[in-house]
Specification:
Strand content of chain B: under 5%
Number of domains of chain A: 1
Oligomer: heterodimer
Number of helices of chain A: 20
Strand order of the largest sheet of chain A: 1-2-3
Number of strands of chain B: 0
Radius of gyration of chain A: 22 Å
Largest sheet of chain B: none
Number of strands of chain A: 3
Strand content of chain A: under 5%
Order of helices and strands of chain A: HHHHHHHHHHHHHHEEEHHHHHH
Helix content of chain A: over 70%
CATH topology of chain A: Sodium/glucose cotransporter
Shape of chain A: globular
Distance between the termini of chain B: 66 Å
Number of helices of chain B: 1
Helix content of chain B: over 70%
Structural class of chain A: mainly alpha
Shape of chain B: rod-shaped
Radius of gyration of chain B: 20 Å
Distance between the termini of chain A: 53 Å
CATH superfamily of chain A: Sodium/glucose cotransporter
Structural class of chain B: mainly alpha
Chain lengths: 504, 49
């Protein structure tokens, strides 16, 4: 069932409203780089929750979580549960985020210069930008697949559609920076949440709860419910996920930027805590859609232990089962709201990620390089221009890489491994730097390099599975920090003391 | 298997319920926050000038 005029009208109204709201942000930027990157550190609790949730809930999130649900049944819920619980714990304890906010940072690698050295900030900046952009590289194609399947747009228009969406995102992000992103995130969060709730109701209504449970039992047995006996998960996977989600909630640039942007450290803690509950739904609800798609369409030839989705006599990839289901079960009008909601999710993530990774390139790669080459520092206005140029550079890269590269295996696991390239080292260096007095620059270098090698070599060259690659990365990073710090020269005084209770 | 079914069913209810409630709260209170953000950014700009 294709798109009706009503559906197209809803999507067009949403796009126009989103662009107008985004361009509004330019009024508040002026010549201040802190307005451009961290919205003047003026975010309150509710707008903080909206922008953090919208940033980390995209169409890509719905797609990979639905795929996990389709492939592994209810056992996949363990990943969502860990992500939400880790976030609530970080929020309640203030682990890392409180200290980060007190230091008044604008990017995560900036901390590396304060605690360690300018050179380590540069290395971290390069690794963060590399891992982050590779991670984002698969977004466009998968989001495009969703939109073409649900709306019925012919596949040949996929590149054109995604290019237009990317241009709209770039337009307001480049012009208004974080302020534009926050304004649009609010609008987009409300819309994507309404779409999420509507789709969940429709999916359970059409598939039937008892049928869903029976299908998982019949297809996967106990492995469809118990993650400890599911061969894809197990205890090792659970521990890796716990480490990974603690590191994402504390050191992932786009998440950390929201913490840096809040009015006070206390508000950053509360934003993190409440968003943790949203994270439970962010994972479990789309996983449920995937299981519903398995129930309705899982009748094709077996693929890795589950039946392929069979729609109109054609076997699809497991990733495409959920959008195919939505295209068939949603009524006109509701379909328009859901697609507008998914577009909102797409745009909120992409605009935040564009700003996040371009800020790393400008603030933590280009500016440190200029300082190492003894060039004049740039003023605030020039830094904003540099950020805008970096933003355009990242967008151009995504246009070419994102639309043509296909990740191997489950998308969720590909994203986890590319993120681990820098997260393992960054998380170990940050926690070591904040909570272990002996952590030093030599330890920082070895943690970053060994963490990156631990993710890249096993996954891309040795073709080991994701869990082992992820575990190796965190293990090597921890070992690197301890070894380097013990053997390296100890610096007694940190460059910057941590100010408790700072509120600006 | 029954224990796991009950556990995931309850988890799903908590997840869906909290997602909905927080969305309603953010949709209502977020407007006030946004207005406050604009006011404070204007104030900061004025101070800088």
């Amino acid at each position: 069932m294709g798109f009706s005029y009503l559906d197209w009208s809803i999507v067009a109204i949403y796009l126009a409203a989103s662009l107008a709201a985004g361009l509004l942000g330019k009024r508040f930027i002026g010549t201040s780089v802190s307005h451009y990157l961290v919205a003047g550190r003026e975010l309150g609790l509710y707008i903080g929750i909206a922008t953090l949730a919208a940033t980390e809930i995209g169409t890509i999130t719905f797609m990979y979580n639905a795929e996990l649900g389709y492939r592994y049944g209810f056992a996949a819920f363990c990943a969502a549960l860990i992500s939400g619980l880790a976030m609530v714990i970080v929020g309640r304890t203030g682990f890392v985020i409180r200290r980060f906010r007190e230091l008044q940072l604008m990017t995560v690698p900036e901390y590396f210069e304060r605690k360690y050295s300018l050179g380590l900030r540069l290395l971290t900046g390069i690794l963060v930008a590399l891992g982050g952009i590779l991670n984002m590289g698969v977004f466009l194609k998968i989001e495009g697949e969703f939109l073409t399947i649900v709306s019925g747009i012919p596949g040949r228009y996929l590149v054109l559609t995604m290019t237009v969406i990317l241009i709209l995102e770039v337009l307001y992000t480049v012009v208004g920076g974080m302020v534009s992103v926050v304004i649009t995130d609010f609008l987009q969060y409300v819309l994507l949440s309404v779409a999420t709730i509507l789709v969940s109701i429709y999916a359970v209504h059409y598939a039937g709860w008892n049928n869903i449970v029976d299908k998982v039992s019949g297809t996967m047995g106990l492995a469809g419910f118990n993650p400890l006996v599911n061969p894809k998960f197990g205890l090792t996977f659970l521990i890796w996920q716990l480490l990974l989600w603690f590191s994402i909630h504390t050191c992932w640039q786009t998440t950390a930027m929201r913490m840096f942007s809040t009015k006070t450290p206390e508000i950053s803690r509360r934003v993190m805590t409440w968003t943790g509950f949203i994270y439970l739904g962010r994972g479990m609800l789309p996983m449920l859609w995937g299981i519903a798609a398995l129930t309705l369409f899982g009748a094709g030839p077996m693929d890795h232990g589950v039946p392929s989705p069979l729609v109109h006599g054609r076997a699809l990839q497991t990733l495409d089962a959920m959008p195919a289901m939505l295209s068939l079960i949603l009524r006109p009008g509701i379909k328009g709201i859901v697609v507008a909601g998914m577009l909102a999710a797409t745009m909120s993530v992409n605009s935040s990620y564009l700003l996040g990774w371009s800020s790393i390139i400008s603030q933590d790669v280009v500016l440190p390089m200029r300082r190492l080459l003894h060039k004049q520092p740039l003023n605030s206005r020039a830094q904003i221009v540099l950020n805008r140029v970096a933003n355009l550079f990242v967008s151009l890269f995504l246009m070419f890489w994102g639309l043509y590269y296909t990740p191997p295996g489950a998308v969720y696991l590909y994203l986890n491994v590319t993120g681990t390239i820098f997260l393992a080292g960054a998380f170990v260096c940050v926690t070591g730097g904040l909570y272990w007095r002996r952590a030093n620059t030599a330890g920082g270098y070895s943690a970053m390099l060994m963490g990156a090698a631990g993710a890249i070599v096993p996954f891309f060259f040795l073709h080991w599975n994701e869990t082992i690659a992820g575990f190796a990365a965190f293990g090597l990073a921890g070992f690197g920090l301890v070894l380097g710090s013990v053997l390296g020269r100890h610096r007694k005084a940190p460059l910057v003391s941590v100010k408790r209770g700072a509120t600006t | 298997m029954r224990t796991w079914q009950v556990f995931w069913s309850v988890s799903l209810l908590v997840a869906g319920g909290s997602f909905t409630l927080i969305t309603v709260a953010v949709a209502i209170k977020g407007f006030e926050d946004l207005r406050d953000l604009f006011r404070r950014l204007h104030h900061q700009q004025d101070r800088q000038e």
